[in-house]
Amino acid sequence: YSVLPDSSRNSDLFNASKILKGYEKIGCDVINVGKLELSGGLSFLLKQKSSSQIPFISANLETEKSHKLIFDPFIIITKEDLQFGIIGLTNLTEVSEDGVIARDYIKEGNKYISKLKNKVDFIILLINSERSSYKKLPQYFPGADIIFTSGSKMLTRPSMKQEENGPFLFSSGREGRYLNKVTLNFLNKNNNKSFINKTYLQSRIKYQKRRLDRYMDKFPNQTYEEAYKGQGDILSIFKESKIEVERMQKELTKKQNNLEFENLPMGSSIIDDLKMLDFVDKALIERKALIKKK
After folding, report:
1. Three-class secondary structure of residue 188 per DSSP
2. What is each CA distance from 72 to 30, 53, 58, in whole angstroms?
3. What pTM does this model have?
4. Residue 63: partners with Cβ closer than 8 Å, 6 or more residues away
5. What is the pLDDT of residues 21-45, one digit of tens each?
6. Which of 44, 265, 290, 293 is found 20 to 30 A from 80 (Cα to Cα)?
7. Alpha-helical segments (H) within the chain
8. What is the β-pairing status of strands 61-63 and 100-102?
9. What is the β-pairing status of strands 178-185 and 258-265?
10. CA separation for the pair 195, 260 (Å, rounded)
């Protein structure tokens, strides 16, 4: 059963199949099944899965009739002698006309985290959920290392508050305009589990310094103690901010594993791969012809 409108269903299904083929061409390790993946109907999705080289995962989607998982709950991928356990979850899918139902995603996520924690070096969650859940996800899944979300238009910025010891959460925003790039730097290979979010700490240091600089804009030749003498609240802000900056700077000087994060804009600065460009151009021509046949 498809929830797509009749007027655009054929072209929408065509788009979905071509996007999947595009993912195969550029190299995609796994797809987490969520609300949009099911919008074309379960039968269409399973047909696409059977013809794709990319694994589809979901740890909490089952059939109402059999109560068995429809997809593998996770996949283990090896990169440079490290094993990554990737678990798929969603909380945006209710009972569908196809009889697809969602188990409690928090319970199922933690169940598979427990199963994988002694088998892999890193646990990554792919979670399709509403934006209001994002702040709580690190608390719901403390055993995860990294969480990537979908389901909203929110774009993670380097300065956004994160749990300093993880799990770290990233969201790539709307319409594929940005690509989340996360780099893991190993400086202490004896402790693969211990990481700091280097980009977040650097961003917070800059923010604190800019904040204090704004307070001093009107007093370029004075110390903050002189400028705000007798104003206890503001003096406390300076003292607390300086202590916090020193703490974060100290963390950054330690020889420990760290994570760096950036959003890569998918705009005109990206040089097109000629083979992929040809693939896209041909797909657009096919889609246009499909629409004309209506």
Report:
1. coil
2. 11, 14, 6
3. 0.89
4. 70, 99, 100, 101
5. 999 999 999 999 998 898 888 999 9
6. 265
7. 9-26, 42-50, 105-116, 137-140, 198-215, 224-227, 232-253, 274-292
8. antiparallel
9. antiparallel
10. 10
